[in-house]
Task: inverse folding
C-alpha cells in the first residue's frame, strides 16, 4: 500500500511538473509570437495616422512591455513568489536606477523629443558640427547617416540640450554666398552682373527675390553678399553651378577676385611700396 | 522639320538606320533607329551637354511621335506691367504657354515616355516659404485680344477671364496657372488650351477656377489633341494670385 501510495504520489507530482512545464512552454511560445508579431502589426496598422518615429517608438515600447509581462507570468508559473520578487526588484530597481541615471534621462528626453517633434525620420539635421539624415528616433538615441555614409548615434539627452538645426523642415532655403572683388572694380556694375548671373541660373528661384548687395569694406576686397533662394533638393546643383558661373563671368569681364593681401606704403599714403621683380640669373 | 502643326505631331515610321530630328522652340531632339535599339538625345538652348540615351528592345515599335503636353509644374505668369481690376469687373486676357513635348511610342503597352521642355524655364516658388509650391516662372506680355498673339509652334494660347468679386481694387501682377488641368486643342495650325475663368476672392481666399474646353467662340472647330495631365471637374478652388512677401531680413 505504501509502495502504491508512493508511486501514486510520484505520478501526481510528475503529472504536475509536466503540466506546469507545458504551461511554461505555451507561455514562452505565446510570448515569442506576441513579441514578434504585435509590435509589427501595430507598426503596420498605425501607418495612416501616426508619424514614422512615433510608430517606431511605440512599437519598441510595446515589445519591451510584452517581454516584461511574459517574464513575470513565466516566473509566476515556475513557482516564484512575485511579492518577494517584486520586493527584490524594488531594491534592485533602485540600484539599477542609480546606476542608469543617464539612460533614464535619455529615455525621458526621447519622450520629450517625440512630443515636441523638432525633426522626423529622413529630415536633414545639424547638431553641433554633425550633419546627417535622420535614420531613426529611438528611446535612448537618435541615429544619423552622414553624407559621407558614416553612422552617428547621438544620445537623446545631448540633442535635448543642444541647438538642433533642421535643414529640411521647410521646402526652400536661402543659399548665402559672400565674395570679394578688388577695390578698383566698379561696385555697381559688379552687383548688376551678379544679379544677371543669378537670373540666368535655372535652379535659382525667381521668388523670393534674390538678394545681392555691397556688404562691407573688407581688408583685401569689397565684400558682396549674394543670397539666392533654392529648393532643398537643388542645394548642391545651385552651389556648384552658381559659383562656376560667377568665376567664369568675372574672368570674362576681367573682374578681379583678390586673395588676402596687405599693402605697405613707404613715405606716401597713395603710392605703393616700391617692389621690383628681378629675374633669376 | 516642318513647322506645319498637323505634320509636326504626326507619327513617324521607324526602321533600321532611320534618323529623325525635331526642332521646336529651343529644343532639338535627335533619334537614331537601329534594329533592336534607339538612341535619343536632346539639346536645349544649344547646350549640347546631354548624353545619347539608349532605348533597348524597340523591335516591336514601328512608329514614334512627338506629342505636345503642358509643363509638369504650375506656371507662375508675371505680367510685364501690372493691371488693376476695379471691384465687380472683369478682364479677358490671352497668354502664351510654352509647351513641353513627350516622345510617344506606337505600342500603347509601353509606358515611361520621355518629356522635354521646349524652352529653358526658370523656377520659382508660389506662396509662403513654409508651405508654398514649386512652379515655373514665365514673364510674358498679357494680350487683351486674340489677334495680338503671334504664337510659335511651341506655344499654346490660353484664354483667361479674370474677375474681381471683392470690394477692393485688385492689383493683378502674377497668376499661378495650374496647367496640369489644361487640355490642348488644335485649330488652324495653332494650339489652344482650355478657357479659364478665375474669380479673385481676396488676398486670403482661394480663387475659384472654372475650366471650359477651348475658346468659346471656336469651340466647334477645335480638335482635342492632348488630354490634360490631371483632369478635373468643371471648377476647383486654389490659391492663384499672390503678393509675395519678400524676405528682407538676413543673417550672415
Result:
Amino acid at each position: 500500500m505504501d509502495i502504491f501510495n508512493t508511486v501514486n504520489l510520484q505520478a501526481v507530482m510528475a503529472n504536475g511538473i509536466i503540466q506546469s512545464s507545458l504551461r511554461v512552454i505555451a507561455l514562452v511560445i505565446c510570448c515569442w509570437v506576441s513579441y514578434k508579431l504585435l509590435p509589427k502589426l501595430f507598426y503596420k496598422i498605425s501607418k495612416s495616422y501616426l508619424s514614422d518615429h512615433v510608430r517606431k517608438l511605440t512599437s519598441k515600447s510595446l515589445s519591451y512591455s510584452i517581454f516584461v509581462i511574459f517574464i513575470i507570468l513565466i516566473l509566476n508559473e515556475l513557482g516564484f513568489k512575485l511579492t518577494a520578487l517584486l520586493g527584490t526588484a524594488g531594491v534592485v530597481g533602485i540600484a539599477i536606477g542609480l546606476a542608469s541615471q543617464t539612460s533614464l534621462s535619455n529615455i525621458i528626453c526621447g519622450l520629450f523629443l517625440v512630443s515636441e517633434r523638432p525633426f522626423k525620420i529622413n529630415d536633414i539635421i545639424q547638431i553641433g558640427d554633425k550633419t546627417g539624415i535622420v535614420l531613426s528616433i529611438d528611446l535612448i538615441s537618435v541615429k544619423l547617416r552622414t553624407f559621407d555614409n558614416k553612422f552617428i548615434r547621438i544620445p537623446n539627452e545631448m540633442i535635448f540640450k543642444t541647438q538642433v538645426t533642421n535643414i529640411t523642415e521647410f521646402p526652400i532655403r536661402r543659399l548665402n554666398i559672400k565674395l570679394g572683388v578688388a577695390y578698383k572694380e566698379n561696385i555697381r556694375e559688379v552687383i548688376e552682373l551678379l544679379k544677371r548671373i543669378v537670373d540666368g541660373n535655372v535652379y535659382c528661384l525667381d521668388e523670393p527675390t534674390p538678394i545681392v548687395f555691397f556688404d562691407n569694406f573688407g581688408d583685401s576686397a569689397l565684400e558682396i553678399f549674394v543670397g539666392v533662394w533654392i529648393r532643398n533638393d537643388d542645394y548642391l546643383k545651385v552651389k556648384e553651378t552658381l559659383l562656376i558661373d560667377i568665376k567664369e563671368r568675372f574672368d570674362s569681364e576681367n573682374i578681379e577676385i583678390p586673395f588676402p593681401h596687405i599693402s605697405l606704403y613707404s613715405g606716401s599714403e597713395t603710392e605703393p611700396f616700391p617692389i621690383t621683380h628681378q629675374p633669376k640669373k | 522639320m516642318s513647322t506645319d502643326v498637323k505634320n509636326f505631331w504626326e507619327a513617324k515610321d521607324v526602321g533600321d538606320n532611320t534618323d529623325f530630328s525635331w526642332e521646336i522652340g529651343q529644343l532639338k531632339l535627335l533619334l537614331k533607329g537601329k534594329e533592336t535599339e534607339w538612341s535619343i538625345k536632346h539639346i536645349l538652348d544649344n547646350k549640347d551637354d546631354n548624353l545619347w540615351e539608349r532605348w533597348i528592345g524597340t523591335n516591336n515599335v514601328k512608329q514614334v511621335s512627338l506629342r505636345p503636353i503642358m509643363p509638369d509644374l504650375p506656371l507662375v505668369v508675371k505680367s510685364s506691367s501690372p493691371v488693376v481690376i476695379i471691384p465687380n469687373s472683369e478682364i479677358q486676357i490671352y497668354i502664351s504657354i510654352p509647351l513641353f513635348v513627350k516622345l510617344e511610342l506606337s505600342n500603347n503597352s509601353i509606358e515611361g515616355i520621355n518629356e522635354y521642355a521646349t524652352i529653358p524655364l526658370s523656377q520659382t516658388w508660389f506662396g509662403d516659404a513654409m508651405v508654398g509650391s514649386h512652379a515655373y516662372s514665365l514673364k510674358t506680355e498679357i494680350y487683351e485680344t486674340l489677334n495680338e498673339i503671334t504664337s510659335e509652334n511651341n506655344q499654346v494660347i490660353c484664354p483667361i477671364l479674370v474677375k474681381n468679386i471683392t470690394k477692393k481694387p485688385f492689383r493683378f501682377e502674377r497668376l499661378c496657372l495650374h496647367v496640369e488641368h489644361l487640355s490642348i486643342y488644335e485649330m488652324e495650325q495653332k494650339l489652344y488650351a482650355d478657357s479659364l475663368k478665375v474669380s479673385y476672392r481676396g488676398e486670403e481666399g482661394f480663387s475659384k477656377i472654372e475650366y471650359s474646353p477651348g475658346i468659346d467662340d471656336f469651340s466647334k472647330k477645335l480638335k482635342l489633341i492632348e488630354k490634360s495631365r490631371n483632369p478635373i471637374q468643371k471648377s476647383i478652388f486654389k490659391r492663384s494670385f499672390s503678393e509675395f512677401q519678400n524676405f528682407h531680413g538676413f543673417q550672415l
